[in-house]
Specification:
Blueprint lengths: L22 E3 L1 H7 L6 E5 L11 H14 L4 E6 L4 H13 L2 E7 L17 H8 L3 E5 L5 H14 L4 E3 L7 H17 L3 E8 L3 H10 L4 E5 L6 H13 L9 E3 L12 H14 L8 H13 L8 E6 L3 H5 L2 H8 L17
Parallel strand pairs: 2-10, 3-4, 3-6, 4-5, 7-8, 7-10, 8-9
Antiparallel strand pairs: 1-2
Bound molecules: pyridoxal-5'-phosphate.
Amino acid sequence: MTSTLSEGNTPPRARLGSWPTPLEPAPRLAAALGLGPDDLWVKRDDLTGLGGGGNKIRKLEWTCGAALADGATVLVTTGAAQSNHARLTAAAGARLGLRVVLVLAGSPPESGPSGTPANTASGNLALDGLLGAHVVREEDRTRLAARAEQVAEELRAAGEVPALIPFGGSSPLGARGYAACADEIIDQAPDVASVVVALGSGGTMAGLVAGLGDGRVLGVHVGAVDEPARTVADLVSELCGRPCDPHALRVRHDQVGAGYATLTEPVMNALTLAARTEGIVLDPIYTGRAMAGLAAAVADGDIAAGQRTVFLHTGGLPGFFGHPTTVARAEAGLLDLPGDPTTPSSTP
Ligand SMILES: Cc1ncc(COP(=O)(O)O)c(C=O)c1O
C-alpha cells in the first residue's frame, strides 16, 4: 500500500477482485484524439472480475472487509436506479454470503397485465435481481440516506446486523482501493503524466490523488454531487491525514450537459469513437463522460501529445443497456461520426 496514506493499523480487506487489472495500449483511439500512438493507455478496471466488473469492487474490498469484521449479516447501500455500485454490492454480498438491501432512487418498473412487467427492469436493475438483492425504492433522491438508515433500523429490530455501505462506496476507507490502483498504474506506466477518470461520488479520484499526487489526476465531473472538487479534497484529506486544497485538483465540469442521467452529443461521439477504434465499450453516464472530457482536454491543450496518458475504464457496461436513449440511438445506427471512415455508412 502506498506510503501517502495516514498511518495506523491496516484495516481488514475482503478479497473480491482480480488484480492487477491490465493496462492496454490504445493507439488508434490516441490518433483519433490527436495524441501520438504510444501516448494513450487504458487501465482496464472494467475487468475487475466479480459481478460484471467495475471500479466499485476495489472500494468494496475495504468496506466489506470492515462489515465482516463487525459481524455484519446484511449489506445496505443506496444509489441511482442504474447504480453500478449497487449491482456490485449485490455481487459482493453473494460472494461473501451476506444478504443485500439496495435503496434505489425512483419508482419500481410498472407492472403489466397479470403481474408480468410491462416496463421491465433492465441493465443494472435486472442484475440486482439476478444477484438476489432486495430492492427498496425511494422516490425522493434527497431521502436516500435517511431511508437506508430506516431500513437498517428495521433490520436490527429483526435481529440482523446491518452494515451501511456509503453512497457510491465513497468513504476514506473505500478510497483506499484506488490508492492501491494508483500503485498498480505507477508499476505499469512509471512515466504517467495524466490519469483521466470519471468523478461521481469522488472516492475513485480521491484514492488516485492519494497515490499519484494532486496534479496527475484529471477528474471529469458527471453531475452526481454538488461540489466535486471539495468532495474529493475532503476524502483525500481524511485518507492521507494532510490538507488537500480543492483548487489544486484537476476537475473538468464541462461534460455534465443537462444533468447526470442525460446523454450528451460529446458523450455519444466518445462512445462511438472508443467502440470503433479500439472495440472498447463505454457507458453514457461515467466512462463516456470521462472519454469526452479527455477529448476536450486534448482539444484545449490540458493534455498534449508526447505525454503518457492513462484512461481509467471504470466499467459500467450494464448502464449502457439501462439507458434507453443510448440503446435506441445505437440500434438505429445514429451514432455515426461525420467524416469518420470507420462508420458503416461510409465503408463500401
Ligand atoms: C462505471 C463508473 N465509473 C465511475 C464512477 C465514479 O466513481 P466515484 O463514485 O468513485 O467517483 C462510477 C460511480 O458510480 C461508476 O459506476
